[in-house]
Structures are given as C-alpha cells and as structure tokens.
Amino acid sequence: MIVQELQQKIEDHFDAGEVREICFKLDINYENLSGTIHKTKVIELVLYCKRRELLGKLINYCKLLRPNIEWPWEDSSLEIKTDFIQIHKYSGTWKVQNSFTRWRRRDIQAAFDLL
Fold it and tell me: What's the farthest any 2 CA atoms get from each other in the chain?
C-alpha cells in the first residue's frame, strides 16, 4: 500500500530534523503530531497528509529533497480535482481539463500548488 511504502521511505531517508522541515514546508505543526520517536512522528505525518489529501504535496517535497529515491506514485498517474479543473499526470505528461468555458487563473494556480 502507498501509505506504508511512503512512511517507510521517509523513515529510512530522513532524520527527525528533516521531517520537522518537511512539516514546516507543508504548514503542519510537527509538535501536534502524536508520538515522541521518529517512526511514530513519520507515521502520523503520512496519516495526517492522507486525511487532508496532502499526500501529493508530501511526495513531491520528498522527491525534491531526495530525487534519487523511487517514491510511490512516481510512475503512476496522479489526478487532482478542484471545483473548476482537473489535472492528470500520465507517463510524465500533464493534461489540464476544465468543465467551464473560462478558466480561472487562481484555480489553476491553486491546483498546481497542490503538486
């Protein structure tokens, strides 16, 4: 499962200070994550991101810091939906679709900010 694989990779490749930095970059309060040991904090971080649909952001930030690691979803499709647009990634190509005649720039930017 993606959640367990992501948790294990973060635990293996990032120390506690780096996990704290990831939380800061994702606007997550590290101190509010349950647990006191590294493994527990990482598990809680991944579960927190899953509950709030932030896994894509978490994975992308991890990829930025450790590009040589094969992260979950790296070769699979990623889909983000907002009220106005859908962004799909298939085989490294981004496709943007919307269901309205006019695109709202801020909505497109908000969707890409999720990545």
Answer: 51
The pTM for the full model equals: 0.64
35 CB-near residues (< 8 Å, 6+ apart): 41, 43, 44
Is 40 domain-assigned? yes
> How many domains, the chain?
2
Tokens matching residue 34: 């349950």
Assigned domain for 70 exists: no
Structure token digits, residue 35: 């647990």
The single residue listed with the structure tokens 């298939």 is 90
Express each pLDDT in 11-59 by its tens digit: 999 999 999 999 999 999 999 999 999 999 999 999 999 999 899 899 9
Give yes or no: residues 44 and 88 share one domain: no
In which domain, by residue range, is 52 found? 2-65
